[in-house]
Amino acid sequence: MLSPTANFTFNILANRDAFQQLADEGICLTPDVPIGERTATSKGNRVFRVEAPAGPFEVVYDAHVEVPRPARARRGARR
């Protein structure tokens, strides 16, 4: 018997840590299925789970991540 659904775990979410700030993110699933739990793995990776029906399935993920960089010293500047 073939299963009418399949379970997926996606590890594509941007990290949240002291080195970068997640300003915004979006997940679009086609067909539109509910997103199961979002968890952080033991290594700190954010993942989400879905149960998708048999057939074509598409995931679109976008994120706006801000990464603060220290100011660069100007050439010739005295210290």
Mean pLDDT: 88
| SSE topology string | EEEEE
Number of helices: 0
Oligomer: single chain
Largest β-sheet summary: 3 strands, antiparallel
Measured distance between first and last alpha carbons: 73 Å
State the shape: elongated
- Main-sheet strand order equals 1-4-3
The percent range for strand residues is: over 45%
List the helices and strands and how they pair.
Elements: E1 5-10, E2 21-30, E3 35-40, E4 46-53, E5 58-66
Antiparallel strand pairs: 1-4, 2-5, 3-4
Structure, described:
- With 79 residues, this protein is mainly beta.
- Helix content is 0%, strand content 49%.
- The chain has strands at residues 5-10, 21-30, 35-40, 46-53, 58-66.
- The strands form 2 sheets. A 3-stranded antiparallel sheet has the order 1-4-3, with no helix packed on it. A two-stranded antiparallel ribbon has the order 2-5.
- A hairpin with a 5-residue loop joins strand 3 (35-40) and strand 4 (46-53).
- The model has no long low-confidence stretch (mean pLDDT 88).
